[in-house]
Amino acid sequence: MLPFKTLIQVDKKSKYPIYQQIANRFIGLIQEGVLQPGAFLPGSRVMAAQLGLHRQTVVAAYEELASQDWIISMARKGMMVAANLPVIKPRSFKTTAVAYAQGPSFSFNAVPKLEMLPPAIGIRYTINDGFPDVRLAPLTEWTKECRSIVQSPRYTKLLMDGSDTLRKEMTKFLTNTRGLNISPDNIMVSRGAQMAIYTAAAMLIRKGDHVITGSPNYIFADLCFEQLGANIIRVPVDNEGIDVDAVEKLCRTKKIRMLYVVPHHHHPTTVTLSAERRMKLLEIIRTYKLAVIEDDYDYDFHYSSAPILPLASADHGGNVMYIGSLTKSLGLSLRIGFLVAPARFIAEAGHLRRLMDLRGDNLSEEALAAMLQSGAIERHLKKAKKIYHERRDLLCKLLMDKLDNRLQFTPPSGGLALWLKFPEHLPVQEVAEKALDLGLRMSPGMHYHYQGKPGNALRFGFASLNDRELANVVGILAKCCK
Amino acid sequence: MLPFKTLIQVDKKSKYPIYQQIANRFIGLIQEGVLQPGAFLPGSRVMAAQLGLHRQTVVAAYEELASQDWIISMARKGMMVAANLPVIKPRSFKTTAVAYAQGPSFSFNAVPKLEMLPPAIGIRYTINDGFPDVRLAPLTEWTKECRSIVQSPRYTKLLMDGSDTLRKEMTKFLTNTRGLNISPDNIMVSRGAQMAIYTAAAMLIRKGDHVITGSPNYIFADLCFEQLGANIIRVPVDNEGIDVDAVEKLCRTKKIRMLYVVPHHHHPTTVTLSAERRMKLLEIIRTYKLAVIEDDYDYDFHYSSAPILPLASADHGGNVMYIGSLTKSLGLSLRIGFLVAPARFIAEAGHLRRLMDLRGDNLSEEALAAMLQSGAIERHLKKAKKIYHERRDLLCKLLMDKLDNRLQFTPPSGGLALWLKFPEHLPVQEVAEKALDLGLRMSPGMHYHYQGKPGNALRFGFASLNDRELANVVGILAKCCK
User: Fold this and answer.
1) What are the residue boundaries of the HTH gntR-type domain, all occurrences included (chains A, B) (predicted)?
2) How does strand A210-215 pair with strand A256-261?
């Protein structure tokens, strides 16, 4: 008889019943080839004595094994390991334990990647690239709406079927704030702007297609297009935004699949596309029937003047896919974005979204819809905008006072970040390394140029830092720039 | 002078300031070519009189336009439409309004789709394909954990940076319940199983690759592989699950990119892959270094006997990508799934997930981690399992009592659904049409065969219906099967 006492160890403290532990161990022994097909197991009385357990426990384990077809009860002969299991060689007991330490032995596609910031261990401050301040989030209203939905009779139906309320409320919100002329059929709700970018791009890009983006550009958009097989062509971004003449020249000479543009507070540089270039771009869109993703990720935050209406509100023949997000507007952990496009495009995009992410978080979507309807979102935006405006001004002042023009910047007209350019003799990577030693984590530049060398600049998200924090962070930065 | 009184209409009830409404309308007029570059605007006094507004309002509008570069203040001459705007032809005023009613004029990729059930208008009951009962969800514990996280000092950091707690807790949970030997490096958290399937498949499939699935198969997996360009080869599914001999034959003759298998409660048929076939399949995986997605979507619900350990717990050389979900286990609107694979695969998959969906809902993920740690999930599963077990038994009894063997089924050993086969003379599509008239919505079969003809069967999700509802639903079904 096999040394079952050694082979089968029972953990009496485990929350799993002992009979189940025994059954699972037997399965392991069969799989490992220790127990061969056709072998008989000791009777339950004998086995119970070996293992020092009650006989009923062993009987239960055997029943479990039989119900799973691993063993068969042979009349008057006892329990036999199923004979029709394929013959297997005995294997080391360790093999199963290391399954995920090895392999895989199949090959898989590489994903274009981005180096991430070091983990926040021992870190006091982080300069992010433009987060809202989650401490300002309208948590009370949010909780109130969630509770009221959960207590309503429609809750069950809602969780199973979802509802169109959010699309309807978003239609109103986008019409009122962005001058779009749309109906709910023109909206797909996504998990944040990123999923909207991925979905729209996946609907368009085939391997080798030319896609135009700015230089520099929002890196997660670039990576997304690369992942989908695009050949990215870059055009310069200057103080007026993306170079639209360069875009037109490309349209004249090449088959261009798509243009990705961030006309408000361009990511990362925060410049706004000038009116002249907007007009010219609309003309290009109409002439070349150019497909455009307009990523208007932080339209809702504007300080100096009202925001410029998006390309999507003008005459583009349905060729502008307008993308944005309420994630930053809400400032909670919830991620909700949108894609606006002609109805037949949205219908297809919705199918694709379903293949990636069966459905959204229905409760959260409904609560957000209620907050759009009640005006809570608008009230929150008003309040947050005022605070972020002050923080932008404070940051500009601190940078001028404490850094004596060592770093260059233009105050952004809106958005949650400021673009800070470093002089050549002061590489941002060295500054970032020094800062880390002083408890400040910031991007060492690799997030702004993906191909070629990293940009010598920093996208300084100011919205999530309060006055005291801003002062401390700029203080550390000043020390590191000496 | 242009008839500005007609061209510029102000809505005094709008929540947007009047100066902004005027500025936006001017932009429209410039974009539409009504106001040409170089044209001068009437002085603010004149314009104010025309529009019947206070002069300061017009001044504010002009300032707004100037700050956006649409107009330029010319010394002593007043405001001029910027001269460097591209010359444009006058256009109908309606063009901007219909931008999203037309187009797009670019072409885009089709997405393999699925006809959805009709909307639930006037519907009393829905037979879904295996949802949990959201009325049983542990809402109190959930709310408690969320509140405690929101009130803790780590909340801000958590929302910005996320945490690894959920991966750690999932590692423990999967080790304890599934016998996996893994570390947090082997887990990617996703939005439900669907995103894990899409991500893993997108890492593997290139256009034209052969992918093996069952016939029938979970349709959203099939659609996902098709979307990614796979050539799907189907092998039969019988009472013992997928035909693994057919799989081996294919591996011998063709380059197979991947196999998708649902060994527990196969979707849609609910059969379990027999022990013999599991062993054989593991051998095939090792021999052919076959990449396998093991979709174990409702492992946590088992009634008759303990569930069989997944392929992922055995010796597969790291080639089994194990996918599952806590969405059904929790029964809230929250979607959280997982992908288990070797660490270097997970690292790449994590990058891809980030391109589709920048980050998860950090608050919800942390709350779920806390519920795994406190044992609340396990307690809930225990309670829910008992209730679903009773509902399964009741459904079987009702089907036998009220349908007199007109429909065929095998009680499923676990899961949240039962596979009901209709006889040839009773097409499920006709039954579904009759049922809709009686207030019952059910799939007319198109969800079970995608290519070829739809299956004459129904996946009857019993978990979300209580005793009374089950009786009523089966009552309606019996009427429609006469």
Assistant:
1) 16-84
2) parallel
Inspect the interface and report whether the beta carbons of A85 and B276 lie closer than 8 Å: yes
Instruction: Enumerate the residues of chain B whose CB falls inside 8 A of the CB of residue A356.
Output: 194-195, 198, 224, 356-357
- Decide if A113 is inside a domain: no
Q: Which residues of A touch B328 (CB under 8 A)?
A: none
- DSSP class of residue A308 equals P
DSSP summary character for residue A12 = T
* Chain B residue with the nearest C-alpha to that of A173: B15
Nearest CA in chain B to A292: B106
Q: How far is B294 from chain A (nearest CA, A)?
A: 14
**B41 and B129 share one domain:** no
For residues B201 and B232, is the Cβ–Cβ distance under 8 A? Answer: no
CA–CA dist A180, B418 (Å, integer): 47
Contact yes or no for A192 and B84 at CB 8 A: no
Question: Do A187 and A240 fall within a single domain?
Answer: yes
Q: For chain A, first and last CA: distance in Å?
A: 78
What are phi and psi for residue B190, nearest 5 degrees?
A: -130, 175
Mutate to test the interface with A, among B22, B89, B108 (most CBs of A within 10 A): B108
Dist CA A412 CA A310 (whole Å): 18
Which residues in chain B have Cβ-Cβ distances shorter than 8 Å to A64? 305-306
Does a structural domain hold residue B20? yes
Q: Please judge whether A361 and B316 are an interchain contact, meaning their C-beta atoms are less than 8 angstroms apart.
A: no
What total number of domains does chain A contain?
3
Q: Are the C-beta atoms of residues A422 and A428 closer than 8 Å to each other?
A: yes
Measure the CA–CA gap between B273 and A10, rounded to whole angstroms.
Answer: 27
Asked, for residue B404, whether it belongs to a domain, the answer is yes
How far B387 CA sits from the closest chain A CA (Å)? 17
B116 domain-assigned: no
**Per-residue pLDDT for chain A (482 aa), expressed as one digit of tens each?**
677 877 788 888 777 788 888 888 888 888 777 787 888 888 889 889 888 889 989 998 998 888 778 888 888 888 988 877 754 443 333 344 467 888 898 999 889 877 777 776 778 999 998 999 988 989 889 989 988 998 888 888 887 777 889 999 999 999 888 888 899 999 999 999 999 999 999 999 999 999 999 999 999 999 999 999 999 999 999 999 999 999 999 999 999 999 999 998 899 999 999 888 998 999 999 999 999 999 999 899 988 767 778 999 888 999 999 999 998 888 888 899 999 999 999 999 999 999 999 889 999 999 999 999 999 999 999 999 999 999 999 999 999 999 988 999 999 989 999 999 999 999 999 999 999 999 999 988 877 765 556 789 999 999 999 999 999 999 999 999 98
ipTM strictly over 0.90?
no
Same domain, yes or no, for A464 and A330? Answer: no
Assign residue B62 the CATH number of its domain.
1.10.10.10
Which range of residues forms the domain containing residue A456? Answer: 125-134+379-480
State the Cα–Cα distance between residues A356 and B356, nearest whole angstrom: 8
